[in-house]
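Sequence, C-alpha coordinates quoted for completeness.
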Amino acid sequence: MSEASKILDEMNDRSREVFRLIVESYLDSGEPVGSRTLTRAMSEKVSAATVRNVMQDLEFLGLLNSPHVSAGRVPTQMGLRMFVDGLLEVGDLNADDRKKLDETLGDNAGDVGGMLDRVGSALSRVTHGASLVLTPKHEAEIRHIEFVSLAHDRALVVLVFADGHVENRLFTPPPGQTPSSMREAANFLNALIEGRTLTEVRRIIQTEIAARRQEIDELAREMVESGLAVWDREGEDSARLIVRGRANLLAETGQEEELERIRTLFDDLERKRDIAEFLELTEEGEGVRIFIGSENKLFSLSGSSLVVSPYMNADRKIIGAVGVIGPTRLNYGRIVPIVDYTAQLVGKLISDRS
Protein backbone atom coordinates (compact mmCIF):
# COMPACT_ATOMS: atom_id res chain seq x y z
CA MET A 1 0.00 0.00 0.00
CA SER A 2 1.38 3.43 -0.94
CA GLU A 3 1.96 6.21 1.58
CA ALA A 4 -0.89 8.21 -0.02
CA SER A 5 -3.30 5.27 0.36
CA LYS A 6 -2.40 4.88 4.03
CA ILE A 7 -3.09 8.56 4.64
CA LEU A 8 -6.45 8.30 2.89
CA ASP A 9 -7.45 5.31 5.01
CA GLU A 10 -6.57 7.18 8.21
CA MET A 11 -8.48 10.35 7.32
CA ASN A 12 -11.86 10.97 8.96
CA ASP A 13 -14.98 11.67 6.90
CA ARG A 14 -14.73 15.46 7.26
CA SER A 15 -11.09 15.61 6.16
CA ARG A 16 -11.83 13.31 3.26
CA GLU A 17 -14.75 15.46 2.13
CA VAL A 18 -12.75 18.69 2.37
CA PHE A 19 -9.93 17.10 0.39
CA ARG A 20 -12.26 15.71 -2.26
CA LEU A 21 -14.06 19.04 -2.71
CA ILE A 22 -10.78 20.94 -3.06
CA VAL A 23 -9.43 18.56 -5.69
CA GLU A 24 -12.67 18.44 -7.68
CA SER A 25 -12.95 22.24 -7.65
CA TYR A 26 -9.31 22.62 -8.69
CA LEU A 27 -9.67 20.11 -11.54
CA ASP A 28 -12.71 22.03 -12.74
CA SER A 29 -11.37 25.59 -12.46
CA GLY A 30 -7.62 25.43 -11.95
CA GLU A 31 -8.00 27.97 -9.16
CA PRO A 32 -7.10 27.72 -5.44
CA VAL A 33 -10.06 26.86 -3.22
CA GLY A 34 -10.81 28.83 -0.03
CA SER A 35 -12.57 27.90 3.20
CA ARG A 36 -15.67 30.04 2.46
CA THR A 37 -16.29 28.21 -0.80
CA LEU A 38 -15.92 24.89 0.99
CA THR A 39 -18.31 25.69 3.86
CA ARG A 40 -21.09 26.26 1.30
CA ALA A 41 -20.39 22.90 -0.39
CA MET A 42 -19.96 20.71 2.72
CA SER A 43 -22.61 18.12 3.49
CA GLU A 44 -22.57 19.11 7.20
CA LYS A 45 -22.80 22.61 8.58
CA VAL A 46 -19.37 23.67 9.82
CA SER A 47 -17.63 26.99 10.38
CA ALA A 48 -15.01 28.45 8.06
CA ALA A 49 -12.53 28.24 10.95
CA THR A 50 -13.09 24.48 11.26
CA VAL A 51 -12.56 24.03 7.51
CA ARG A 52 -9.38 26.11 7.68
CA ASN A 53 -8.03 23.84 10.41
CA VAL A 54 -8.73 20.78 8.28
CA MET A 55 -7.02 22.44 5.30
CA GLN A 56 -3.94 23.15 7.41
CA ASP A 57 -3.83 19.50 8.50
CA LEU A 58 -4.04 18.36 4.88
CA GLU A 59 -1.27 20.76 3.94
CA PHE A 60 0.90 19.38 6.75
CA LEU A 61 0.35 15.88 5.31
CA GLY A 62 1.68 17.07 1.94
CA LEU A 63 -1.65 16.78 0.12
CA LEU A 64 -2.30 20.51 -0.37
CA ASN A 65 -0.26 23.65 -0.74
CA SER A 66 -0.83 27.41 -0.94
CA PRO A 67 0.32 28.78 -4.29
CA HIS A 68 -0.12 32.40 -3.21
CA VAL A 69 -0.48 34.48 -0.06
CA SER A 70 -4.24 33.89 -0.24
CA ALA A 71 -5.95 31.32 1.99
CA GLY A 72 -6.84 29.15 -1.01
CA ARG A 73 -5.29 25.71 -1.48
CA VAL A 74 -4.52 23.46 -4.45
CA PRO A 75 -3.63 19.75 -4.42
CA THR A 76 0.02 18.69 -4.64
CA GLN A 77 1.17 15.92 -6.97
CA MET A 78 0.90 13.51 -4.04
CA GLY A 79 -2.61 14.81 -3.38
CA LEU A 80 -3.65 14.31 -7.00
CA ARG A 81 -2.24 10.76 -6.97
CA MET A 82 -4.18 9.96 -3.81
CA PHE A 83 -7.36 11.37 -5.30
CA VAL A 84 -6.92 9.41 -8.55
CA ASP A 85 -6.17 6.15 -6.71
CA GLY A 86 -8.78 6.40 -3.97
CA LEU A 87 -11.52 8.93 -4.69
CA LEU A 88 -11.79 9.34 -8.44
CA GLU A 89 -15.18 8.37 -9.81
CA VAL A 90 -14.80 7.27 -13.42
CA GLY A 91 -18.07 7.56 -15.28
CA ASP A 92 -19.22 5.84 -18.44
CA LEU A 93 -18.28 7.33 -21.78
CA ASN A 94 -20.92 9.93 -22.55
CA ALA A 95 -23.00 9.57 -25.69
CA ASP A 96 -21.64 12.70 -27.39
CA ASP A 97 -17.99 11.66 -26.97
CA ARG A 98 -18.77 8.13 -28.13
CA LYS A 99 -20.53 9.47 -31.24
CA LYS A 100 -17.57 11.72 -32.17
CA LEU A 101 -15.10 8.85 -31.82
CA ASP A 102 -17.31 6.40 -33.71
CA GLU A 103 -17.80 8.86 -36.56
CA THR A 104 -14.07 9.43 -36.91
CA LEU A 105 -12.93 5.85 -36.48
CA GLY A 106 -15.84 4.07 -38.12
CA ASP A 107 -14.17 4.28 -41.53
CA ASN A 108 -11.65 1.44 -41.64
CA ALA A 109 -10.56 2.27 -45.20
CA GLY A 110 -7.03 3.23 -46.16
CA ASP A 111 -3.82 2.16 -44.49
CA VAL A 112 -3.28 1.67 -40.76
CA GLY A 113 -1.11 4.79 -40.53
CA GLY A 114 -3.89 6.97 -41.93
CA MET A 115 -6.44 5.41 -39.59
CA LEU A 116 -4.20 6.03 -36.56
CA ASP A 117 -3.63 9.61 -37.69
CA ARG A 118 -7.40 10.04 -37.54
CA VAL A 119 -7.42 8.45 -34.08
CA GLY A 120 -4.94 11.05 -32.84
CA SER A 121 -6.92 13.94 -34.31
CA ALA A 122 -10.18 12.61 -32.86
CA LEU A 123 -8.70 12.14 -29.38
CA SER A 124 -7.29 15.65 -29.44
CA ARG A 125 -10.61 17.19 -30.53
CA VAL A 126 -12.74 15.24 -28.05
CA THR A 127 -10.47 15.79 -25.03
CA HIS A 128 -9.19 19.29 -25.93
CA GLY A 129 -5.75 17.99 -25.00
CA ALA A 130 -2.76 16.68 -26.90
CA SER A 131 -2.96 13.09 -28.07
CA LEU A 132 -0.30 10.45 -28.50
CA VAL A 133 -0.67 7.38 -30.69
CA LEU A 134 2.04 4.75 -30.84
CA THR A 135 1.54 2.88 -34.10
CA PRO A 136 2.48 -0.79 -34.50
CA LYS A 137 5.14 -2.09 -36.83
CA HIS A 138 3.75 -3.38 -40.10
CA GLU A 139 3.41 -7.15 -39.89
CA ALA A 140 1.95 -8.13 -43.25
CA GLU A 141 3.91 -10.53 -45.44
CA ILE A 142 6.54 -8.88 -47.64
CA ARG A 143 6.20 -9.23 -51.40
CA HIS A 144 9.29 -7.40 -52.65
CA ILE A 145 12.41 -5.55 -51.46
CA GLU A 146 14.52 -3.13 -53.47
CA PHE A 147 17.56 -0.95 -52.71
CA VAL A 148 17.87 2.43 -54.44
CA SER A 149 21.08 4.51 -54.34
CA LEU A 150 20.45 8.23 -53.73
CA ALA A 151 24.01 9.43 -53.06
CA HIS A 152 27.34 7.95 -52.01
CA ASP A 153 26.22 8.07 -48.36
CA ARG A 154 22.46 7.63 -48.70
CA ALA A 155 20.27 4.83 -49.98
CA LEU A 156 16.63 3.83 -49.85
CA VAL A 157 15.15 0.44 -49.04
CA VAL A 158 11.69 -0.01 -50.57
CA LEU A 159 9.45 -2.59 -48.88
CA VAL A 160 6.33 -3.76 -50.71
CA PHE A 161 3.93 -5.76 -48.53
CA ALA A 162 1.38 -8.34 -49.65
CA ASP A 163 -1.50 -6.13 -48.49
CA GLY A 164 -0.39 -3.31 -50.81
CA HIS A 165 1.35 -1.26 -48.12
CA VAL A 166 4.62 0.33 -49.29
CA GLU A 167 7.35 1.73 -47.03
CA ASN A 168 10.44 3.71 -48.07
CA ARG A 169 13.24 3.95 -45.50
CA LEU A 170 16.49 5.89 -45.74
CA PHE A 171 19.75 4.37 -44.47
CA THR A 172 23.50 4.84 -44.79
CA PRO A 173 24.96 2.20 -47.12
CA PRO A 174 28.44 0.72 -46.64
CA PRO A 175 31.31 2.55 -48.40
CA GLY A 176 31.97 1.45 -51.95
CA GLN A 177 28.55 0.01 -52.73
CA THR A 178 27.78 -0.39 -56.43
CA PRO A 179 24.55 -0.87 -58.42
CA SER A 180 25.45 -4.54 -58.90
CA SER A 181 26.04 -5.14 -55.17
CA MET A 182 22.68 -3.50 -54.43
CA ARG A 183 20.93 -5.70 -56.97
CA GLU A 184 22.63 -8.79 -55.54
CA ALA A 185 21.56 -7.84 -52.01
CA ALA A 186 17.96 -7.33 -53.17
CA ASN A 187 17.96 -10.66 -55.02
CA PHE A 188 19.30 -12.42 -51.93
CA LEU A 189 16.53 -10.96 -49.76
CA ASN A 190 13.73 -11.50 -52.27
CA ALA A 191 14.62 -15.20 -52.37
CA LEU A 192 14.01 -15.34 -48.61
CA ILE A 193 10.91 -13.24 -48.07
CA GLU A 194 8.13 -15.22 -49.74
CA GLY A 195 5.30 -15.69 -47.25
CA ARG A 196 7.23 -14.07 -44.40
CA THR A 197 6.70 -10.94 -42.33
CA LEU A 198 9.40 -8.39 -41.56
CA THR A 199 9.86 -9.82 -38.06
CA GLU A 200 10.30 -13.33 -39.44
CA VAL A 201 12.80 -12.14 -42.05
CA ARG A 202 14.76 -10.32 -39.33
CA ARG A 203 14.89 -13.50 -37.28
CA ILE A 204 16.31 -15.74 -40.00
CA ILE A 205 18.39 -13.30 -42.02
CA GLN A 206 21.61 -13.47 -39.99
CA THR A 207 21.52 -17.27 -40.06
CA GLU A 208 20.97 -17.23 -43.82
CA ILE A 209 23.79 -14.76 -44.37
CA ALA A 210 26.17 -16.95 -42.41
CA ALA A 211 25.07 -20.12 -44.24
CA ARG A 212 25.26 -18.61 -47.69
CA ARG A 213 28.13 -16.16 -47.18
CA GLN A 214 30.03 -17.62 -50.15
CA GLU A 215 27.10 -16.93 -52.48
CA ILE A 216 27.24 -13.18 -52.14
CA ASP A 217 30.20 -10.85 -52.22
CA GLU A 218 31.29 -8.74 -49.28
CA LEU A 219 29.59 -5.51 -50.40
CA ALA A 220 26.26 -7.22 -51.00
CA ARG A 221 26.45 -8.74 -47.50
CA GLU A 222 27.11 -5.30 -46.02
CA MET A 223 24.16 -3.88 -47.97
CA VAL A 224 21.87 -6.51 -46.48
CA GLU A 225 23.13 -5.85 -42.97
CA SER A 226 22.82 -2.07 -43.43
CA GLY A 227 19.24 -2.55 -44.54
CA LEU A 228 18.59 -4.77 -41.54
CA ALA A 229 19.84 -2.05 -39.23
CA VAL A 230 17.13 0.20 -40.61
CA TRP A 231 14.45 -2.39 -39.86
CA ASP A 232 15.69 -3.28 -36.41
CA ARG A 233 16.74 0.08 -34.98
CA GLU A 234 17.01 -0.42 -31.24
CA GLY A 235 14.34 1.41 -29.21
CA GLU A 236 12.13 2.32 -32.17
CA ASP A 237 10.95 -1.18 -33.14
CA SER A 238 9.71 0.25 -36.45
CA ALA A 239 7.10 2.13 -34.48
CA ARG A 240 6.01 5.70 -35.00
CA LEU A 241 4.74 8.21 -32.49
CA ILE A 242 1.93 10.47 -33.74
CA VAL A 243 1.39 13.68 -31.77
CA ARG A 244 -1.75 15.73 -32.37
CA GLY A 245 -3.25 18.77 -30.65
CA ARG A 246 -0.03 20.41 -29.52
CA ALA A 247 -1.73 23.83 -29.59
CA ASN A 248 -4.34 22.63 -27.07
CA LEU A 249 -1.68 21.96 -24.46
CA LEU A 250 0.25 25.15 -25.19
CA ALA A 251 -2.95 27.14 -24.69
CA GLU A 252 -3.31 25.73 -21.17
CA THR A 253 -0.43 27.78 -19.79
CA GLY A 254 0.38 31.45 -19.90
CA GLN A 255 3.70 31.61 -18.10
CA GLU A 256 6.69 31.81 -20.42
CA GLU A 257 8.77 29.35 -18.39
CA GLU A 258 5.99 26.75 -18.41
CA LEU A 259 5.40 27.37 -22.11
CA GLU A 260 9.06 26.62 -22.80
CA ARG A 261 8.84 23.36 -20.83
CA ILE A 262 5.85 22.27 -22.90
CA ARG A 263 7.70 23.11 -26.12
CA THR A 264 10.66 21.05 -24.89
CA LEU A 265 8.34 18.10 -24.24
CA PHE A 266 6.94 18.18 -27.75
CA ASP A 267 10.30 18.72 -29.37
CA ASP A 268 11.50 15.58 -27.59
CA LEU A 269 8.44 13.63 -28.67
CA GLU A 270 8.68 14.72 -32.27
CA ARG A 271 12.34 13.68 -32.37
CA LYS A 272 11.29 10.31 -30.92
CA ARG A 273 13.97 10.41 -28.25
CA ASP A 274 11.74 8.63 -25.77
CA ILE A 275 9.72 6.20 -27.87
CA ALA A 276 11.32 3.34 -25.95
CA GLU A 277 10.11 4.95 -22.71
CA PHE A 278 6.59 5.26 -24.11
CA LEU A 279 6.70 1.65 -25.30
CA GLU A 280 7.52 0.52 -21.78
CA LEU A 281 4.33 2.15 -20.51
CA THR A 282 2.28 -0.11 -22.75
CA GLU A 283 3.93 -3.38 -21.79
CA GLU A 284 2.80 -3.64 -18.19
CA GLY A 285 -0.64 -5.10 -18.76
CA GLU A 286 -4.07 -4.11 -19.91
CA GLY A 287 -6.09 -1.13 -18.81
CA VAL A 288 -5.74 2.62 -18.53
CA ARG A 289 -2.79 3.98 -16.57
CA ILE A 290 -2.41 7.51 -15.23
CA PHE A 291 0.96 9.24 -14.78
CA ILE A 292 0.96 12.55 -12.93
CA GLY A 293 3.79 15.06 -13.30
CA SER A 294 7.20 13.67 -12.42
CA GLU A 295 5.90 10.09 -11.94
CA ASN A 296 6.97 9.44 -15.50
CA LYS A 297 10.34 10.65 -16.78
CA LEU A 298 8.97 11.32 -20.25
CA PHE A 299 6.69 14.10 -19.02
CA SER A 300 8.33 15.29 -15.82
CA LEU A 301 9.77 18.43 -17.39
CA SER A 302 6.39 19.75 -18.46
CA GLY A 303 4.47 19.10 -15.24
CA SER A 304 1.83 17.38 -17.36
CA SER A 305 -0.22 14.25 -16.84
CA LEU A 306 -0.56 11.31 -19.20
CA VAL A 307 -3.55 8.98 -19.46
CA VAL A 308 -2.53 6.01 -21.62
CA SER A 309 -3.91 2.62 -22.62
CA PRO A 310 -2.42 -0.14 -24.78
CA TYR A 311 -4.32 -1.64 -27.68
CA MET A 312 -4.10 -5.25 -28.84
CA ASN A 313 -4.36 -7.26 -32.02
CA ALA A 314 -6.56 -10.30 -32.63
CA ASP A 315 -4.08 -12.50 -30.71
CA ARG A 316 -4.43 -10.29 -27.59
CA LYS A 317 -0.85 -9.09 -28.05
CA ILE A 318 -0.08 -5.47 -27.12
CA ILE A 319 1.05 -3.76 -30.32
CA GLY A 320 0.67 -0.04 -29.59
CA ALA A 321 -0.91 2.57 -27.34
CA VAL A 322 -3.11 5.65 -27.33
CA GLY A 323 -2.96 8.42 -24.77
CA VAL A 324 -3.81 11.98 -23.85
CA ILE A 325 -1.45 14.56 -22.36
CA GLY A 326 -2.89 17.49 -20.46
CA PRO A 327 -2.24 19.67 -17.44
CA THR A 328 -2.15 17.93 -14.06
CA ARG A 329 -5.64 19.32 -13.47
CA LEU A 330 -6.99 17.06 -16.20
CA ASN A 331 -10.62 15.94 -15.94
CA TYR A 332 -9.51 12.38 -15.21
CA GLY A 333 -13.04 11.05 -14.68
CA ARG A 334 -13.96 12.00 -18.26
CA ILE A 335 -10.62 11.31 -19.99
CA VAL A 336 -10.11 7.75 -18.64
CA PRO A 337 -13.21 6.23 -20.34
CA ILE A 338 -12.42 8.12 -23.58
CA VAL A 339 -8.88 6.68 -23.74
CA ASP A 340 -10.12 3.21 -22.73
CA TYR A 341 -12.84 3.18 -25.41
CA THR A 342 -10.46 4.49 -28.09
CA ALA A 343 -7.89 1.80 -27.32
CA GLN A 344 -10.52 -0.93 -27.57
CA LEU A 345 -11.87 0.54 -30.81
CA VAL A 346 -8.40 0.73 -32.39
CA GLY A 347 -7.66 -2.87 -31.36
CA LYS A 348 -10.91 -4.02 -32.97
CA LEU A 349 -10.26 -2.11 -36.20
CA ILE A 350 -6.75 -3.57 -36.50
CA SER A 351 -8.01 -7.08 -35.67
CA ASP A 352 -10.76 -6.77 -38.31
CA ARG A 353 -8.14 -5.93 -40.93
CA SER A 354 -6.17 -9.08 -40.16
Remarks:
- DSSP finds 14 helices and ten strands in the chain.
- The first strand starts at residue 64 and ends at 65.
- The chain has three domains: 3-86, 95-136+239-353, 142-231.
- Residues 332-353 form the longest helix (22 residues).
